[in-house]
């Protein structure tokens, strides 16, 4: 499996575009410089009233399916 770590700072208001379906993917740059497009549905359980803030780790299967998305720290 492949893992990527990244930082994300999105307000709830900004993430609402994804939540409503106006946009479907969140683009992040991993700490290693890789550009990742992650479907917004994977972030919904991590969303708070303040939005999405902190360091996250995305783990993919060998076929590039999301295995897990974890919040490592909050900011």
Description:
A 3-stranded antiparallel sheet has the order 1-4-5. Strands 2-3 form a two-stranded antiparallel sheet. The longest helix is centred in the N-terminal third of the chain and has 9 residues, at 12-20. It has 75 residues and is mainly β. Strand 4 (52-60) and strand 5 form a beta hairpin. The chain has one domain (2-73): OB fold (Dihydrolipoamide Acetyltransferase, E2P) (Beta Barrel), CATH 2.40.50. The mean pLDDT is 90. It is built from 1 helix and 5 strands. It is 12% helix and 48% strand. The chain is globular, with a radius of gyration of 12 Å.
Primary descriptors:
75 residues; globular; three-stranded antiparallel β-sheet; two-stranded antiparallel sheet; 1 helix; 5 strands; mainly beta; OB fold (Dihydrolipoamide Acetyltransferase, E2P)
- Per CATH, the class reads Mainly Beta
C-alpha end-to-end distance: 27 Å
User: Helix content range of the residues, please?
Assistant: 10-25%
Task: Provide mean pLDDT, rounded.
Answer: 90
What can be said about this structure in brief?
The chain is mainly beta.
């Amino acid at each position: 499996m492949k893992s990527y770590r990244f930082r994300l700072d999105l307000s709830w208001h900004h993430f609402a575009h994804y939540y409503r379906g106006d946009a479907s993917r969140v683009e992040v740059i991993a700490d290693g410089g890789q550009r990742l497009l992650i479907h917004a549905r994977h972030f919904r359980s991590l969303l708070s009233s303040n939005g999405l803030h902190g360091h996250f780790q995305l783990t993919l299967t060998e076929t590039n399916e999301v295995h897990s998305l974890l919040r490592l720290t909050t900011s």
